[in-house]
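Why predict the complex rather than its parts? Because the way molecules touch one another can change local conformation, and only a joint prediction can capture that. The input here totals 532 residues.
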Amino acid sequence: MVYPARVNEHAAVDPAGILPSRRIARDLRQAIEAGELAAGQRLPSERELAARYGTARNTAREAIRLLAAAGLVDVEHGRGVFVHRPAPLLRLGSDRYSRCYRGAGLSPFLLECAKQGMTGRFEVLSIERGRPPEKVADELGVPAGQESVLIRENVFWAGTSPVHRVTTWIPWTIAGGTGLLEAEIPHPYGIHGILEDRGHVMTRQRETVTARMPTTQEEGHLQIRAGVAVLEVWHTSIDQHGIAYELTRFVMRSDLTGLHYDIPVE
Amino acid sequence: MVYPARVNEHAAVDPAGILPSRRIARDLRQAIEAGELAAGQRLPSERELAARYGTARNTAREAIRLLAAAGLVDVEHGRGVFVHRPAPLLRLGSDRYSRCYRGAGLSPFLLECAKQGMTGRFEVLSIERGRPPEKVADELGVPAGQESVLIRENVFWAGTSPVHRVTTWIPWTIAGGTGLLEAEIPHPYGIHGILEDRGHVMTRQRETVTARMPTTQEEGHLQIRAGVAVLEVWHTSIDQHGIAYELTRFVMRSDLTGLHYDIPVE
DNA sequence: TCAATAAGCTGGCTCAAGCCTGTTGACTGC
DNA sequence: GCAGTCAACAGGCTTGAGCCAGCTTATTGA
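Output of the joint prediction:
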């Protein structure tokens, strides 16, 4: 890329009326989008950018910050700033509860990981009887003030990265006294196998999808870098009688995962 | 909220080992989450925070920046910093192409706006014959290098806010010579009415959903403030013969819109 | 040969100061 | 009564300096 001649010192804006930090960011952005700086390549250091543009280091730093917040660039302490290398997305499919995966031995999540050449696994964080949030109580038709639900908390990993944080609520009237209390689900078809044995066959699913920035906790749990949003998915399982009998919230890193729906138009 | 006693000057970290900017941010965050600072309420000014914590103004500023990037706070030039007041989300439903809305006179988007007490409308930015991006050409089965598609570009508004930026591609072999070239679609059932007349009845839809930070352009188009992601939805319409005949990309502000799917489990 | 060390790079954070632009409300004068 | 003006205060951006912490590599010494 080409750097500008040093302009007059202390000038807040250059002749084109652009603020210095924006100008540096714009130039770098263009270089990235034009492919002059390839994915994974190192950008000039903050001190070098500052010198080339005749600005203070803080100004070059501000430019980098803008690019990082936009997710264009990955900053690594002590190493440098690198053009972001997008990772292939794992796709959570709408067919993940389909019976067609029965007997395959692999859950849809693990299948998808395998497809992307990664090793998937999940970790049980906690299983307990507890009180549902109001929203969950409403949807499941259980009392909010009591320990009316089984709560399972999981983390899904793809390779060495945590990608989903998952919380599941099931009415205690359904889950009580079943294998749902164990970390290892004692049923060949997993959680939903047990729920079917209790008389609830998933006939419909309702899902809402929103995106937002992670909370401080989620940032830690999912090892999210700055400028990465999370997808929040609320899934409700509806049985053959129209009853909502299970509810799951997924918090997903948007840099590593996406959603896929393949559905009939009614 | 309670402010700390001024600690020794020039200390990089306070006794608890927390950086000053993080400490200010943490205190403010806790005050917000505890409800001490209610939604819409003004935070202390940067200069005031700096004085109370015995830091430089830039440090208080950094704290505010952290909160703004997390979407907890809205910064208004000249006015102050305010606790973010979440707006009700417009939900784009998976049933939006359903025939059940036929004859209602309102499109699903306008219905959803009305439900939230807002006035919805949309604006046609451009309609032209053009070249599809490779991804689109692949999916629609048209040549990538030629002007093989009709491209329509729209913006959807809810009240005074732009919420969706929408691009639609339709093979020219289908769209050519139809009312799809007009801004006002001359068909009571809209675009999909015309496509049905050409022999394509939507039988399935495929959608992929991802989240990311907006590009500079999108930030402008959608009037997005810092710390707000966009949802990117790629929709493919599949007809009764399994042919993909229409493709739409939605770029949606995640602070004002979400998605909703209500689907059978197959 | 190999491990410990140190130099020299990277970004991370802060300071104190200055000048800019946008907003508001009180004051002024018609 | 009302419009124009202006001061006070808000955030926006920059400077140039300093020190800290993480990474890499070349050097050193056992």
